[in-house]
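quick q for whoever's on today - can somebody do inverse folding on this one?? i tried earlier but teh output was garbage lol. tokens:
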């Protein structure tokens, strides 16, 4: 038997023993606290709490702060100084256990443009209490073709134990209860210079969990209807199935649609976005719901971009978990390189539409890599495959190299060339066409694509995570 097999057998024996202990209160009563603490290495905190809740003698162990500090550590939280009045137990049970799955990236389904929301744990500082902060990725509306701009982060929401500004605004607040409760705020942060403005604009909001829905989005013209891409589609390379949703009650999504209403809509006010059932069932999601009207809170424009069309769908956008795949990248000139190394989030220039985010994923059947738009524009919307690349066949490589040299005038020589095709469209995703393109792997983290139809180069960069604060 190998060492690995022996280690696996020992691990299984320990887990079986742990399971027997957790289901046998009599034996557990004889265990000292340090052994109870050790059980956390082999079982979940939920099982341990259930076990210790079986009698008063065991329940006293749950008052020990070290247990709760330990289960907070995997989230990177070790210092509770800036959670005033809260021990590690409510920080874990009310915040991390319930909302910890939020940490990471989420993509919303707002029509055409889409948005990315990133949640991170904020331990707090001298000016602000700790909690979970949500920030919208923001990119300039116009960026140079060969120099896309990485996202900046605009604070939009916060979950914390802080007192609400107006308890009546929060449907989830614990008015009249002494138990610690997490509240959700529309919150853009503050500095000492803008503290007054910050306090006057910060207000209670809500984060809800919504059921699955088959509603999709459409754009109705006078005599034509355009189907916007399903978001997410039935099979989605960017959707993170490993992430759960917050442990809060699930609300039913509205089932009413606007398929009949759009028929009565004045022709002079078309085109207009509306929702109607489709064949694709979208999974459960989260949504941020602000109780204030758009003219009183800027959060509405953070989560959705104002459309150049009428929009009959007034619901807050649905957010879905987005994979946070960040690979180190491999030198394209290396024999170890493959299209697999391109997977992850990239940001690129889309000319007048500015910088947009895409997710690159391998299509094993075709041996190619597909770039799906996570954020989009008024021509090619979020959810659409922007382009597909594959390694050029051996007999075409010399011709491709010559073509690159002819159209690239600044002397940039790629480490590897790929061929493919991309999607272009008119305003409102009309007159969609598939065009040929050529891609040069300039480095492990940069792809320059020549769109032959518009005779322009566009650059794409690998997203490497947030810069050090």
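ok took a stab at it. sequence:
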């Amino acid at each position: 038997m190998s060492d690995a097999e022996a280690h696996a057998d020992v691990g299984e024996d320990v887990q079986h023993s742990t399971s027997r202990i957790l289901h046998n209160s009599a034996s557990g009563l004889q265990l000292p606290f340090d052994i109870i603490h050790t059980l956390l290495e082999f079982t979940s905190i939920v099982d341990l709490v259930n076990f210790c809740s079986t009698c008063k003698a065991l329940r006293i162990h749950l008052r020990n702060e070290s247990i709760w500090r330990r289960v907070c550590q995997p989230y990177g939280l070790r210092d509770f100084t800036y959670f005033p009045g809260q021990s590690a137990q409510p920080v874990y049970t009310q915040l991390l256990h319930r909302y910890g799955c939020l940490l990471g990236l989420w993509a919303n389904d707002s029509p055409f443009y889409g948005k990315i929301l990133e949640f991170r744990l904020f331990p707090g500082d001298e000016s602000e209490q700790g909690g979970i902060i949500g920030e919208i990725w923001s990119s300039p509306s116009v960026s140079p073709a060969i120099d896309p701009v990485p996202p900046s982060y605009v604070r939009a929401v916060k979950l914390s134990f802080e007192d609400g500004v107006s308890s009546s605004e929060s449907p989830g607040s614990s008015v009249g209860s002494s138990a610690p409760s997490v509240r959700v705020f529309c919150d853009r942060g503050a500095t000492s210079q803008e503290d007054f403005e910050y306090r006057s604009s910060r207000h209670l909001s809500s984060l809800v969990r919504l059921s699955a829905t088959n509603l999709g989005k459409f754009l109705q013209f006078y005599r034509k209807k355009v189907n916007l891409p399903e978001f997410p589609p039935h099979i989605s390379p960017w959707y993170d199935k490993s992430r759960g949703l917050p442990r809060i009650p699930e609300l039913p999504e509205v089932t009413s649609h606007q398929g009949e209403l759009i028929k009565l809509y004045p022709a002079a006010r078309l085109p207009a976005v509306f929702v109607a059932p489709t064949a694709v069932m979208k999974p459960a999601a989260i949504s941020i719901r602000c109780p204030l009207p758009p003219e009183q809170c800027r959060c509405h424009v953070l989560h959705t971009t104002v459309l150049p069309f009428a929009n009959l769908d007034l619901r807050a956008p649905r957010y879905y978990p987005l994979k946070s795949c960040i690979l180190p990248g491999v030198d394209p000139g290396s024999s170890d390189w493959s299209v697999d190394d391109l997977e992850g989030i990239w940001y690129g220039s889309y000319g007048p539409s500015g910088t947009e985010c895409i997710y690159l994923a391998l299509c094993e059947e075709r041996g190619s890599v597909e770039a799906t738009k996570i954020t989009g524009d008024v021509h090619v919307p979020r959810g659409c495959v922007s382009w597909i690349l594959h390694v050029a066949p051996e007999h075409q490589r010399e011709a491709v190299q010559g073509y690159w040299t002819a159209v690239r005038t600044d002397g940039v020589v790629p480490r590897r060339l790929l061929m493919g095709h991309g999607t272009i469209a008119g305003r409102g995703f009309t007159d969609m066409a598939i065009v040929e393109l050529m891609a040069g792997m300039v480095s492990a983290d940069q792809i320059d694509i020549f769109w032959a139809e518009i005779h322009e180069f566009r650059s794409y960069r690998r997203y490497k995570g947030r810069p050090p604060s």
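fwiw The radius of gyration is 26 Å. also The longest strand covers residues 430-443. so keep that in mind when u check it
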